[in-house]
Amino acid sequence: MNPPLLSVRDLRRTYRSRAGLFGSGLVTRAVDGVSFEMTAGETLGLVGESGSGKSTTGRLVMGLEEPDGGNVVFAGTDLTAMTPAQRKPFRRRMQIVFQDPYAALNPRMRVGDFVAEPLLVHDVGGGAAERRDRVAELFRTVGLDPAFMQRFPHEFSGGQRQRVGIARAIALQPEFLVADEPITALDVSIQAQIVNLFQDLQERLGLALLFIAHDLSMVRYLCTRVAVMLRGRIVEAGPVEAVFADARHPYTRALLSAVPIPDPVRERGRKRLPFDAGGYTFPPGAALRDLGSGHLVLDGA
Amino acid sequence: MRDFWRALTRGSGWLGLAGLLLIVVLVLLAAFGPLLDLPDPTRTNLRARMVAPTLSWAGLGAHPLGTDQLGRDILSRIVAGSRVTLMVAGAAVVLGGILGTLLGLASGYFGGLLDRLLMRLVDIQLAIPLMLLALMVVAALGPSLHNLIGVLALVSWVRYARIVRGQVLAVREREFVQSARAIGASAPRILLVHILPNVLTPAVVVATLELARVIVLEAGLSFLGLGVQPPAPSWGRMLAEGRTYISSAWWIITFPGLALMLTVLSVNLLGDWLRDYLDPRLKVR
Amino acid sequence: MLEISDLSVGFSREGRFARVIPGLSYSLRRGETLGIVGESGSGKSVHALALLGLLPQPPGKVLGGQAIFRGEDLLTVPEARLRELRGGQIGVVFQDPMTALNPVLTVGRQIAEPLMRHKGMTRRQALDRATDLLALVGIRDAARRLSQFPHEFSGGMRQRVMIAIAISCEPALLIADEPTTALDVTVQGQILDLMAELRERLGMTMIWITHDMGVVAGIADTIQVMYAGRTMERGPVEAVFASPRSAYTWGLLQSLPHGARPPGGRLHQIPGQPPDMFNLPPGDPFAPRNPFATERCHVEAPPLRQVEGSVPGHLAAAWYDLPALLERAR
C-alpha cells in the first residue's frame, strides 16, 4: 500500500462554554480521539449527524482550529504546532470547500479576484495578465463562463457560487481537498452537477477528497471509504460497500435504516431502527477493532 | 446609485433627502462663503452695535441678521463659523473614525489580551462625561484648533471601535474569512481585503451620527472658551457672548443657535435614514 | 376537503414584478396526503403561505383564484376567521421550529393557548391535554417538560413540540412545510414515523412540502412536482415514481445516487440553473434545461392533463411523450 498522504492521529478538540451567570461552564468534547489515514487520490466520506464533530475534524485537519491533542501529519510532516509561516507552503497543497455558498464568498469582492487571491497570496501565476488567464481557465474547469469574472457574488445562484468556491480551492492545484457538506445547501437538481464536478476534478487533478456529509446515499456513491462519527468519535469505518452492506455498529445501522429511499414500494415496506444518539454511552475501553479488509468497528474491550 | 436615489425619494426617504439637501447647502455656504461679498466677520464697528435684523420680504439690508455687541455682522459670522465648525467636526470624525475602526478591527480579530484591554478602556472612557474629558484634555494641552480636533477625535473613537469590533466578531466566522485563512493569507490581508469592506457600512452610519454629536460638543467647548479661539468666529462662542444680551438683543444668540440646531438636525436626519437604508438590522440598538 | 382553483401569486422586488405562481389548481380528498416537491423558486412554500394568509404583503400579493376549504374561500375570508382556522381546523408545521416557537413562553403555555382559544378549554384542562399531546408526539416525562422553554429542547424535540401544537385542536388539514429538512436523518425518520401514525389515528389530511423525493415516497399518497410556480406532474406516488412523464420529474429521480458508483459512472445531471422568476423563458419554463424539449415547448406552455395509458389522476404538463423518447434513446 502507498504511504498515506494524510495521517490523523488521536485528534482531540474540546470546547468550554463560558461559565454562565449561575453554575460552571460546560465542556464539550467535539472531537474525541479521531484517527484515520488517507492515500493520494482517495475519497473518504466522513458522515455523522449534527454535533458529531465531523466538521470540526475537517477544520482541525486544515489548521483552521488548533487541536487540544493529537497530530495531523501531511506528506510525512507533522503540521500541528507549526507557526503560520512554516505552515504556509502546506496551505498550497490542502484546501477546503465550504457548505454555505452564500457565506463562502466575500460579498464585496469580484468573483474573479476572489478566485485569483490564492495565486496572489502564494505569488504564483506570474503577472496580472497571466493570472487573469489562469483564473479564466479555472472558471472553465469548474464550468463557469470566464465572462462572469467581473461580477459580484450576489449575481449568482447557489450552485454557481459553489463553483466559484471550488475554483478558488483548486487554484493552487492542491493534492488534498476537504469538502465540508458542499452540496447540502444546494437545490436537488444542482447537487448532481457539483458531485460530478468533484469527480471530474479528482480524475483530472488526482485529488484526495475528504467528503464531509450527512447524505449517506451520496457518500456511498462518491466515496471509496467511509468513516461514521458519533459524538466526536469514529464508531465505524471501512470500504464503503463493506460498511453499507454489513454495518456492525448500532448507530451505523440506525443511520442507514433512516435514509429515505426514493422508491415508494421499498420505502413503505421498511422499518427504521431506533437509536438514541444522545443517551448512548460508549462501552468503557472501547476501541476500533478490525473485522478484516480494513472494516473497523468500535467495540468494548 | 440609482437605488440610492430611488430610496431617497420614496416613502420616508424625504426626511433623509431633506437632511442631505440642508447639508449640501451648508457645505456650499461654508466653502463659497468668502465669495459672497459679506462684511468681514471680525471687523468691529462700535457705531453699529446691536443693530436689529433687517431681514424682510422687501429685501436685505446691510445687516440682514443684525450685528452683535461689537457691531460685527452676524450673518457673515455665522457663515464663517460654519467653516470652522464643519472643518473641525469633519476632521475629528474622520480621525476618530480611522482610529476607532482600526482599533475595533484589531480588537475583534485578534481578541485576547488586546481585546480585553481596549474594551475596558472603552468602558472607562464611556463612563467619563464627554464634556469633562474634553475639558481635562484642553485644560492640560491648552486651547488650539489642533488640540480641539484631537480632543474631539479622542472622544468619538470609542463608538466606532465598539461597533466595528462587534461586526468583526460576526464577519470573522463567515466562511470566506475561513477560506482566506485556509489559503494562507496574512492577517493584514484578511483584515483589509476581507473584513474591512464588510464592516465599513456600520462605521459610515456611526460617522454620520457622530458628526452631529461632535458639532454640538465643539459648540459646547467653544461656549466655554476652550474651543475655537478668538478672533476666529464660532457658533459656540457667539452663543456664549450673546447670552448676556438675550433680553435686549435676542438676535445675537438666536441666529447662531438656529444655525447649530438646523445643522445637527439635518445631519441626524441623514444619519438615521442612512442607517435604515444601509442596514435595517441596526435599527434596534 | 380543499379545492384550489387558479391561485395566482405575484412578487415584486426592486421595482420589478413577477408572477411566481401563474395559476395553480388542485384538490385534496379527505384523508389524503399530498407531497409537494420542488426546488427554490418552485412556489411550493409561497403557495402554502398564501393559503394560510401568511404571505408577507408586500413584497408578495395574491392576485386571484380561490381556495375552498370546507365551503369557505381561504383567500377571501376575513383575517379574524383565518386566524380562527389556523391552529384550529388547519394545523401548520414549519421548517424552523426555533423561529416558530416563542422563546420566552413555556412550551406548555404555547400548546395550551390554541386549546383555550379554539376549544374553549380552561387553563387546567388545556394543560392536561398538553401533557397528553407531548406524550403522543413521543416526548418522555411530558408533565415536567411542559414548564420548560424552547431552548431546553433539542432540534428534533422542538419539531415534535411544533407538531404537538399543530395537532392540538385535531385539525382536519395539516400543512407541513419542509418540517424535517433541518433535522438529522435519524430524527427525520422518527418524525416521519410519528406523522404516519398520527395521521392514521386522527384521520388527518396532509400537505407535505419537501425537496426530498425519498420523503415523499414514504409519506405521500399523491405527489405533485412543481417548477417555476407550475405543476409539472401530479399523480399517485407509485405511478409517478414508476413512470414519470415530465422530464423534470424524471431528471430529479435520475440525479439521485443509487448504491455504489459503477466504474466510470456519473450521476445524471439536470443542466442549467434554477429558474429566475423575474426572467422566465416563454413556453414551458423547464424547456431550456430539458434535453427532450421540442420546438413547441419553447413557445407554448403545455397544459396539465391526464396521462394516456396511466392510472386516472396521473397528470403531466408535457408536449413530448417521455417513455417513447426514453425508449428511443436506449
What does this structure look like?
The complex is a heterotrimer of chains A (about 300), B (about 280) and C (about 325). With about 300 residues, chain A is of the alpha/beta class. Chain A contains 10 helices and 12 strands. Chain A has helices at about 55-60, 85-90, 110-120, 130-140, 160-170, 190-205, 215-220, 240-245, 250-260, 265-270, and strands spanning about 5-15, 25-40, 45, 70-75, 75-80, 95, 175-180, 210-215, 225-230, 235-240, 285-290, 295-300. In chain A, the strands form 2 sheets. An 8-stranded mixed beta sheet of chain A has the order 6-7-8-3-9-10-12-11, sandwiched between helices. In chain A, strand 7, helix 6 and strand 8 form a beta-alpha-beta unit. Chain B has one domain (about 70-280): MetI-like fold. In chain B, helix 2 crosses helix 10 and helix 7 (about 175-180) crosses helix 8 (about 185-225). Chain B starts with a helix and ends in a 7-residue tail after the last helix. In chain B, about 45% of the residues are buried. Chain C has about 325 residues and is of the alpha/beta class. In chain C, about 35% of the residues lie in helices and about 20% in strands. In chain C, the strands form 2 sheets. An 8-stranded mixed beta sheet of chain C has the order 6-7-8-3-9-10-12-11, sandwiched between helices. In chain C, strands 2-1-4-5 form a 4-stranded antiparallel beta sheet, with helices on one face. Chain C starts with a strand and ends with a helix. Chains in contact: A-B, A-C.
Topology (SSEs and partners):
The complex is a heterotrimer of chains A (301), B (285) and C (330).
Chain A lengths: L5 E11 L10 E12 L4 E5 L6 H8 L7 E6 L2 E2 L5 H8 L2 E4 L13 H11 L6 H14 L16 H13 L5 E5 L7 H18 L2 E6 L2 H7 L2 E6 L2 E7 H6 L4 H9 L5 H5 L18 E4 L5 E4 L2
Parallel strand pairs in A: 3-8, 3-9, 6-7, 7-8
Antiparallel strand pairs in A: 1-2, 1-4, 4-5, 9-10, 10-12, 11-12
Chain B lengths: L1 H8 L3 H20 L41 H37 L1 H16 L2 H12 L3 H28 L2 H8 L4 H37 L11 H8 L8 H28 L7
Helix pairs in contact in B: 2-3, 2-10, 3-4, 3-6, 3-8, 3-10, 4-6, 5-6, 6-8, 7-8, 8-9, 8-10, 9-10
Chain C lengths: L1 E12 L2 E13 L4 E5 L6 H9 L7 E10 L2 E2 L5 H7 L4 E4 L3 H4 L6 H13 L3 H14 L5 H4 L9 H13 L5 E5 L7 H18 L2 E6 L2 H7 L2 E6 L2 E7 H6 L4 H8 L40 H5 L5 E2 L8 E2 L5 H8 L1
Helix pairs in contact in C: 4-5, 5-7
